[in-house]
């Protein structure tokens, strides 16, 4: 843990206090473990490796650690816009988001205690739904047809 338990502020996300074991080290492990899987994946690897040059991966991983730190720990480290790069990938579709979520679920299940894995996955499901809606809208598709992906269907 980065801070002693008694000096760390209680962070509440969606009405649920974050478990104290969720810290920057765990976020780092999740991000790096997840993207290791992504880069090796037959479906997602070619897409990610096609848009992120080998020398740019350390920067991307640091940015994703900042994103998840801001998302989960309410830090102010991330100030980017994650949607535009995804909008620029024309082949990005439903099967990619399902695979992304499946790999993410496997990663957080492997690396985190169950209550932390659940928090990560709930947030990832919301992010994926938001991105899917935005992509559909930007492609001129009917967004009313986009249903959330739920963990039971991964």
* First-residue to last-residue Cα separation: 31 Å
Helix and strand sequence = EEHHHHHH
Q: Rg to the nearest angstrom?
A: 16 Å
Task: Briefly note the CATH topology name.
Answer: Globin-like
Structure description:
The chain has helices at residues 24-40, 45-51, 57-73, 83-87, 94-111, 114-138; strands at 12-13, 16-17. By secondary structure, the protein is an all-alpha fold. The chain has a single domain (20-153), classed as Globin-like, CATH 1.10.490. Strands 1-2 form a two-stranded antiparallel sheet. A hairpin with a 2-residue loop joins strand 1 (12-13) and strand 2. It is globular, with a radius of gyration of 16 Å.
Structural key phrases:
154 residues, mainly alpha, Globin-like, 6 helices, 2 strands, 58% helix
């Amino acid at each position: 843990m980065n801070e002693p338990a008694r000096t760390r502020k209680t962070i509440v996300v969606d009405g649920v206090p974050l478990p104290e074991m969720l810290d920057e080290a765990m976020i780092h492990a999740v991000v790096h473990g997840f993207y290791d899987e992504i880069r090796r994946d037959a479906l997602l690897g070619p897409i990610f490796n096609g848009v992120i040059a080998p020398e740019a991966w350390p920067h991307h991983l640091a940015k994703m650690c900042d994103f998840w730190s801001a998302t989960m720990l309410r830090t102010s480290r991330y100030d980017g816009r994650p949607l535009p790069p995804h909008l620029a990938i024309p082949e990005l579709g439903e099967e990619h988001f399902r695979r992304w979520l499946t790999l993410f679920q496997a990663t957080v299940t492997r690396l985190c205690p169950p209550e932390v894995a659940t928090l990560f996955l709930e947030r990832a499901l919301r992010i994926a739904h938001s991105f899917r809606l935005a992509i559909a809208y930007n492609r001129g598709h009917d967004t009313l047809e986009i249903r959330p992906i739920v963990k039971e269907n991964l």
